[in-house]
Amino acid sequence: MSIEIIVMLILLGSFVGVVAGLLGVGGGGILVPALSSLFLYMNFPSDKIVHLSLGTSMAAIIVTSFSSMKAHKAKGGVDWHSVRFMTPGVVIGTFAATFLVASLKSVYLAGFFAIFMTFVSIQMWRPVKFASSHSPSNNELVGVGGGIGAVSALVSIGGGSLTVPYLSWRGHELKRAVGTSAAMGLPISIVGTIGYLYNGWPQTDLDQYIIGYVYWPAVVVISCCTALTAPIGVKIAHKLPVPTLRKIFAVLLITIALKMFYSVITL
After folding, report:
1. For residues 263 and 107, what is the distance between their CA atoms, to the nearest angstrom?
2. Which DSSP letter does residue 215 get?
3. Dist CA 35 CA 39 (whole Å)
4. How far is 98 from 199, CA to CA, in rounded Å?
5. Count of C-beta atoms within a 10 Å radius of residue 258
């Protein structure tokens, strides 16, 4: 990689780390469209750019999620009961969805990503505030985990945009929901990465450091940066109200998602 590319990845990873710690998301909403533009600039095969972006983002989220989870755990912000019962569903849903991703064209993946991120941005801008009248059963947690895992694999996110609203609805205080979401991002990212490696294995190009649907140089640079900056986002989340930051993030999500979709359909 050129120095220019490395600097761009460092800036990207640093920003994603702060956002991940602050909002309990894995950062895929930022990484996927940013990596798509970067891979276009690097002249990677156009028909696999979105797949590579999804797989690379998912692999990078592993370190981001771990760093964010560790910081939230230190502050007692993780509901381990929910994590325990949602994880089996997450594992199955995430891995199964990677097979679907491998069979879809880039334009369909980009379209689904743009639509989903628009939904997420609306939730970020003006979250719906309502609460459930009872706690979820263990079976419900497993089922919801499966759905969150499947959608997370399709758009390469850590699941925070779904997990946080769900847990908030079930009565979790926001900061605890964010911490639990960060913990859920770890199994999602690990299983998702395995799925992208397996399903993209025929696309492996060792000369380009691509294994499966993962471009490893980007993973290494981004992961190093997010590991350092995710705790910063966690500190901010536990000290400051974040409604203004949520709105800024919402605008950013819409902008970059539509930019990625436009880039792909105009190839």
Report:
1. 10
2. E
3. 6
4. 7
5. 15
Radius of gyration of the chain (CA): 17
Residues 87-141 pLDDT 10s: 999 999 999 988 988 888 877 777 777 787 777 777 767 765 655 656 788 899 9
- CA–CA dist 162, 132 (Å, integer): 16
In angstroms, the first-to-last Cα distance of the chain is 23
Cα-Cα-Cα-Cα torsion 236, 238, 239, 243, nearest 10 degrees, comes to 70
Quote the tokens at residue 262: 């436009």
Nearest to 115, CA basis, from 266, 263, 267, 260: 260
- Count helices and strands in the chain by DSSP H and E runs: 10, 2
On the 0-12 / 13-18 / 19+ scale of CB atoms within 10 A, 147 is: middle
Rounded Cα distance between 64 and 26, Å, is: 6
pLDDT for position 180: 87
